[in-house]
Every structure is written in C-alpha cells, then in structure tokens.
Amino acid sequence: MGGRKFLIGLVFGLALSLGAPATAHEAHEPATSSRSQSAAPAAEGPLSGTTAMPGMASDMDHAEMADQGPKPMPQRLYRWLGAMHPAAVHFPIALFLVAALLEIAALTLRRPVLTQGTRVIIALAAISGIAAVALGWFAMGLPGRDDATHAYHRWLGTSIAALGLLSWWAKEHWVRRPEAAREVVYLGLLTLTAGAVVINGLLGGMLTHGMRHLMF
To answer: What's the CA gap between 82 and 157, in Å, rounded?
Structure first.
C-alpha cells in the first residue's frame, strides 16, 4: 500500500516537473518576440535592409541638412539661369526653321512676297540664339568633363549662335543691295544654320530623354 502511494507521488511529481518548463517556455516566447520586434526598428538604418551603427541616423541627418543648406546667391543664380536653357532654346530653333522654310517656298513657288517677314524672323532668331547658347553654358558649366554627346551639343550650339549672326548679316546685306552673289551667300549660311539646328536638337533630345528615345 505504501509502495503504491510512493509510485503515484513519484509519477505526479515527474508530471509537474515536465509541465512547468513547457509552460514557462510558452510564456517566455511572446516576451522575447515583443522585445525583438521593438529592437528591430532601432537596428534598421535610414536605408532599408541595412544595419545602422549607433549615431548613424543622426550623422546622416546632419549631412543631408548640410547639403540642403542655403547656397550663396551667385551659385543659386548660376543654377537658375542654367535651368532656363531647355525653355529658351525652342525660340531660335523654331525661328531659324521657319525662315528657312519661307525662303525655300519663295524660291520654289517664285513668290518673293513670302520672304518679306524673314528679315525680322532671322534677326529675332539670331538674338534668341545667343541667349539660348549663353544659358546652355550656364547649364553645362565649363568644358572639361563632357562626354562625346555633351561636347558635340555644346560646341555645335555655340557654332549655331555664330552662324545665326552671319545669316542675319548676310540677309541685311542682300536686302540693301540685292545681288545674286549675296543671295547665294545668305541662302548658304541660312541652310547651314538650319541643318545645324536640326542636328543639335537631336543631340539635345538624346541628352534629355536618352539615346534610344527616337527608336521606331
């Protein structure tokens, strides 16, 4: 009788000793998971998937604030003028092409009346071309780090400003003294200017939209 009670007590004690650790482990898991979840955001850095060292977030915040700090007025004006280049460049492009088309139409249709407005158009194209080129230099900065496309675009655009002035000069001389030789010089310069405008417009599109933006 006493041996039976001893065996029952032993089995009961073993059951309690095995059940207690399991219960304690179950109670410990939520606390551990909550601590790990609360510690996870602190271990993540400012960039997802990276582990931050102590003080990294504050250091990067200060660096960003330093980058976004106020710039000197000359630097701000320089960057602002460069940002105006894409808008300003459309005026000489359109004006030079319109002048060339009117001259072609006048020669083809034999209607000189079509060229009456080209004198003003070419003058405006030459002036706006100089302004667009100046803004382009503000946008690209000084030469030295240009790749091939940037270099071609820069110097071809500068050449267009010079060709525009020469076309304007040739037009004025032809209007004042209408001679065949002066007409040939004027039409040749205007044709060369219009061709350069088209090529440089394509180069500008490559710089803005990528090399494959005209793929059919």
So the answer is: 15
